[in-house]
Structures are given as structure tokens and as C-alpha cells.
Amino acid sequence: MRRSDWEDALTSSNLSRRSFIACTAAAGGILTAPGIVRAQSYPSRTVTIVCGFSAGGTTDALARLLAAELSENLGQPFVVENRTGAAGAIGMTAAARARPDGLTLLFSAVGQLAVVPHTSNSLTIDPRSDLRHISMLAEGDFILTANSQVPAANIEEFIAMAKARPNELFYGTSGAGGNLHLFVEAFNLAAGIQMRGVHYSGGATLMPDVLSNQVQVALNSYPVAAPYVAESQLKPLLVVGKERNANLPDVPIGPDIGLDDLARCMDWFGLHAPAGTPDEIVAVLADATAKAAKSPAMADRLKASSLRTVASSPQDFEARIREDYDLFGQIAERAGMKTA
Q: 26: which residues sit within 8 A by CB, 6+ positions away?
């Protein structure tokens, strides 16, 4: 081989080697960062949002509205799948066990994440570690109401009456082991009273017994209670949560009467993904949820439901879940609330 041929071959070989090394390094970078590759094209096809509650309720309505907003913001269909039962635990478990690729999500209410784990023996996941917590969309308060036959005119008179008649008064809930059950027990503990719980299969069966004085009090969201309050069939006694209701400005919150822990007993709704979902996908969803929360349609729905927009970061949402999980666990233990 002539020297010039040998030099040409060596030069060509070095170039090929350098090209091979460069390509190999690039491929290695791709292989070591699968989340980045997936996130760049996310979402690439239809995303399912699991809702653990029946169609028509507040959780389902918010999930569907969020799905519509995410579809528009991210350019792929987001659809809601209702997987009901066990106070939302069935849907939550299914979502937690899905592939962590961002194509199966969970839209939750507070009871699933922070209450049911303390009241049920059958839950097979830990929602703190088996889910990625993307964003709390909104939060809200509840109204403790008494039927019109209860003689107490305000919360102070009601507490005095309950203290004078331990275990004689009844409260009703729309299901044992859920957040409404726990929040009334939180009220019992904070106020130093003893009422007996009656747990129904839903609000439709609960409300007639509240109105007829079969049970004396119930805790509900403002939209549920409002029509009965307007007709003087129910008397609003206390806002369980952190803010007075603008429609009921004279009704106190817990801290107004020395029941400070009740300010933490709030309704909230949020979006989650299975544990292991890449950070990049979580970030895309958190940003899109924050944008959705500011849309006119979402703002109108939240206002109509007496809910406050939150749109928290993943870090803030995770911290809130852990705080509520610990507090509600303490309440459930003190109240002896294991139900199954």
C-alpha cells in the first residue's frame, strides 16, 4: 500500500471511529434518560383519568372538566373512567398499579388519600408512596347543619345541648369511613361531646332522615345544604374548614369558637400518577393543571361549588397530603373509626 493510500485509510478509520463513539455516546444518553424522551412526546395518545366516584357528583364533574381542559392544553384526548367502590379505594388502587407512563392518572378527593387508609383494613396500597402527587386543584369547606326541629339556635347552644345529652343525639353521613364521617368525629372530639353516627349509602338516603329529625345533624358541602337552608329546613351551625362562607357570613368557623383543629378538616381534589412516573411528565401535567385551573369554565365551576382554586406544585401537594394523613390518622384512632 502506498503511503498516501495508508494515510487516507487511517484518516477514514479515525473519522469512522469518532463518528461511532459520538453516536454511541448519544445513544447512551438517550438510554439513560428515558423520562426525558417520553416527556418530549407526552402525551402521545389518549390518557385515562380514573375517578373513584360515581358520575354526577362533584369529584366526577371536576375530573371531567379538568380532562377537557388538559385535552385542549396538551393536544391529546384525556378521558374519565369511573371505577367506584370502597369510598374511592378501588379506583385509587387501580391507578396506583397502572404503568407509570403518564397514560393512567387518578383524580382524587381528600377521603381517598388521607382518610380511608386509616378507616379500612382492606387497602392494599399506601397512597403516600404508591402515587406521584401532581397538583391539588381546589379545596373547600363543609357546613354542619341541624334540622329545624333541633332547638339550638347556634353552635354554642348545640354544643351545650349535646354535652347535657351524651349519646342521645345522632349525626348522619353518606357513608362510613369517609371524610364526612371523620370530620364529624373531629368535631365531637374538639367540642368534647358524644353523638352517635348513622351511616347511609349516600346523600339521597341520608337527607330525608335529617329533615325528619331521625338524625339531628349532618355535614355537607354548601351546594348540597344550600337549598334546605334557604327553605329553613336546615339550620347552618358551623363551617368546618378554614374560611367563613360568603353566603353564610354569620356562621362561624371552628377557630372562632376555640375548635382550631377543624380548620384543617377540608375537602380537596387533586391529580395523581402512579409512583415511578418520570419527573418530566409530572411537570408537564402540573403546569397544564395550573393553566386549567385559571380557565373561565373551571373558575365558574369552582365558584358554584364553593371551592377555592389552589393549583399547587407537586411538592406542596405532597406535603399537604402527608400533613393531612397524619392528622386524620390521629383523629381516626382517637374516635375508633376502623370500619372494615
A: none
